[in-house]
Amino acid sequence: MTPRKPRDVGNGLLAASFTAKEVLAVVRPHPHLGMVELTGAREFAEGTDRGVEARVRDYRRHLADASSAALVLESDAEVELKADTAAPSPGLTWTARSEGPLTVRFRGRLQRPPYAEITEIAPPEFLAQDTVLEADGPVLTLRSAGLGAVATVRASSPSGAVAWVRTGEGAECRAEGAAAQLSLTVEFTVDGGVPAPRGRAHLVAPSPGSLAARTHAAAVQYALGCCALDVADGMTCVVTDHRLLPLSWTRDAYFVVLPLLLQGEPGSEEEDVLRRHLNWLFGPARADGPWMRSHLTGGQVKDPGLQADQQLYPVLELVDFRRRFGHWPSPDLGHWRAGIEAAFADLVADPATGLLVSEETPADDPAEYPHNFSTQVLYAEVLTRLSTVADEMGLDGAELAQRAQQVRKRTKELFLVDGPAGPAYAYETDGTGQYRLYADANDLPAPLAAAWGFCAADDPAWRSTMETAFNPDGPFTVAGRLGGLGSVHTAGVWALGLVQELLYARTIGDSSRQERVLATLGELVSEDGMLPETADPETGAWLSRDWFGWPGAALAAVLASEDLRPQPAR
């Protein structure tokens, strides 16, 4: 059976995707450009592809195909390519074996990823390709003056010396013998320095056991190896994926690291990564003001849309860190207090309603009305969790708890409308009687409302809202054998929509619904435990985003915790 997606491996500095015979690409953070990559993919045609959804999606599919590979293995016998995760290294290493002579061919270049987005605000400036290729014995070197980057591919073989030979625009090297073996190590340097390697590489690999075990293993390995990328000493950026959109959304990042928050132990790599991520969030990512829709790995704003919930998730992650590990990321409590106060100061509240205002929805789409329901649920939860530890840094915990209660009360009043199945909470409202009824797979706080204590599990309006969202005959569910909640953002059944329904089923104790949703997710999950953005509701074929950290991590978190609130490590 053909795998749903390529395999992934990363060491927190470099991340890569590969198959049984190809290394598709190797990427690493860049302090000014976000990311640089070693790739054999065709160039993204800025003049004809940028902003055209069909062309963007076609390019994304190309990145998962063997035709995009930078390194290709060839042999008359079967080839086996494995990633080496045994020892810490600044590079990534693969070993290939064959029963006959083995050749590896290089075809590619260094480039900044095109960040091929569907809903884009600020396209990146075009950078011309200027890669220079040099072959010197076992080392193939690629240099780009424009990127300030150098990559090397070192080849070795236990059967004897090997050497790269230039072939037109590429290069190749060959290992001879009846049982040939080649090791390939890729390293990167960029202007601005290279952080010390964090540790061994993490391979996202098929694992035995239940769906919970498989998705947990994948979520943790993908987060630690490929999403949590070290950008400077003490700083780690968390991207939503390492190939298609290696950008940081604070919303996506929170859920990508949530499995680490739920199960990381004091002194672990998980704790260190979370600490470094918080340093980045409350440092470089806020250097120019509020957290925006998306950021480059250096902290620079990529897309400047202002979303209210994006100001809340970093505070939630900070409080969750304190809750899980028993201390703040650093002893400088003044720094964390200032960061919290700055985040709250950047929130826009309507003086007439007291509720948060946002330019965009949590799906990155323009808001039709200023107040979003799931954002108010999230706001109340952030205030509540912060209130339990606020006094440690000189904030008024009692005042925060009171404010959380006011947000809950006011939201229930202003969002309550007549829905298709009775009283319901609107998706958006202006607070004066205008509203929109809608449900979106990106809005996880909505199904978490009861688990988080925003409302009771038997709240008629919340139950009606959720039942309408997941009604297979309703307007928000994608119909089909594997159907579920979708989003106007991208066609198909959303893995996150199914995770929402699983959350709801667990909260109300609907075991048959839980079994059905888990069975559906079990059909959609890849061999290595990852989930796509969307899939075909009849066949299960992945429709968008072969790489996406959020849905698999969210499912792993749901299967590990009743309410997604990290408990103190034991």
TrEMBL record:
The keyword Signal does not apply. Keywords: Hydrolase. InterPro entries: 6-hairpin_glycosidase_sf (IPR008928), 6hp_glycosidase-like_sf (IPR012341), GH125 (IPR008313). Pfam families: Glyco_hydro_125. It comes from the Bacteria. GO terms for molecular function: hydrolase activity. SMART domains: DUF1237. This is Glycoside hydrolase family 125 protein.
